[in-house]
Amino acid sequence: MTNEFENFNDHDEEWLHELELRATDLENELFDWREAHARELADSGYGRDGTGHRASEGRPGMLRAQPGRTPPRPGRPDEALHHVIEDEEPDDDLTTIIRTGGRPGWPDPGHGRPSAQQRTQALIDRGRRSAARARMRKSRKALLTVVGVVAVVVFASVFIFRSGPGWPPSVATVQSQIETACQNPNIASEPAQVNFACGKDTRQILWVFALMTSGDNPQYSDPKTGRQGLEPITPAQGGQVAWSLNMHHPYNPMNPVDSLQVAARAINNIIGGATLTGTDGKPVVQPGLESNPDNCVKYTGSSAIVSHAGFPSLCALPITSPTGQAALVADTYRQWVVGATAASAYDVSVLFSNANNPGNPQVQAILKTLPNVK
Q: What is the spatial distance between Cα 131 and Cα 120, in angstroms, rounded to a whole number?
């Protein structure tokens, strides 16, 4: 019952009002019993002290208990009154607490029984204060819980959703353009059919070269060298390569797809070599990087070479190791960009090898040195 009293709130007002009415009814019944008993004593001619009197004479009916008022107490022994109250009042814990004042700070039965209004008021006051304290404790706990949850969510989101270092946004654009450019079936070198530039696991060489030479800008133009386009080569060089691609429109170096197709065919020719027609009409074999046994050792670990009549020589083993591919990319870059330094070629090989790891410290350091990268 103590816990119930401590959880009173404003919604219990109606219940408390009913309790007050019940207490008032009990007071009225007690008053009626006292008057009836006093009349019996008067009729018999005996009072409590042995003398005849009419105890009820002169008592106005308005002395019946009204809500909030306590009627005067006659000389009836408390024991008899206690039995009457016990017979009339409902046997529940709440009535017992109100009657006996069993809780500290409540009306003391030793100093006179309080009125129904006083008991009700005490119940309301005590209950409301306890409920307020309980609500305050619960509100504080709820607030602390919410704050804790929010702190955990914010802390987790900082680590889960924070954006780490990555490639410049323009790289994604060039990657989509490479998908289109590599659909040309004439990208592979002739006649060896080397297609390193558009290979599934090696085509990043195209956007890495574009990132290093033009900053992924398809409108790039270098007035000193005359190089133009996303993969900047001179228009004359691009035109010489473009005829082998069987394009259905004139080559445009400022068109990123055209520029990437030309670059892919040129890179494959640098690696695998090409067979061209000389001015005398005879085939001329141009060797590629894989036509050199020393290069094959560096790329594959073996110096073995396969040769066919009329074809450029190629390394006997495929170039599949990350180290071998990185070395091949660095050598290709030095042939692609005339005058490129060994340091810049090494940077290209680092970017190529870490295409899926842009957070690599070396990658981030290289990107900071590139001008106009977006």
A: 16
